[in-house]
């Protein structure tokens, strides 16, 4: 029995469950914070993905306005720098969300700290 317990611990990284009430209570108390961390990681990942997609969409719209529709020729003086603003803002948003996305995916504290500072 000790041999099988060692195989399970080394091979699967788990202990064999015992049905001792104190051990089960301890496992339930330590499982809740792990679930909360996984939930926070998933929420951060999804929100950063949507932010990254928004940044890429802004960049694409800015490039379309610049090269396909020639907004600077059509709009006059009002929207002269609109496409440049969209391109720059889209790149910045996409870059910041990429740092947050990678930090959340790899649980890298340096990237998450840079994401928070930006």
The topology string of helices and strands comes to: HHHHH
What overall form do the CA principal axes indicate? rod-shaped
Proportion of β residues? under 5%
Nearest-integer average pLDDT: 78
Poorly predicted tracts of residues:
none
Number of extended strands: 0
- The CA-CA distance between the termini, in Å, is 54 Å
Q: What Rg is obtained from the alpha carbons, in whole angstroms?
A: 25 Å
Distinctive features:
118 residues; mainly alpha; 5 helices; 81% helix
Q: Could you explain how this protein is built, in words?
A:
The protein has 118 residues and is mainly α. It is built from five helices and no strands. Helix 2 packs antiparallel against helix 4 (82-106) and helix 4 packs antiparallel against helix 5 (109-117).
Topology:
Layout: H1 2-12, H2 21-67, H3 71-74, H4 82-106, H5 109-117
Helix pairs in contact: 2-4, 4-5
Give a quick summary of the entry.
The chain has 118 residues and is an all-alpha fold. It has helices at residues 2-12, 21-67, 71-74, 82-106, 109-117.
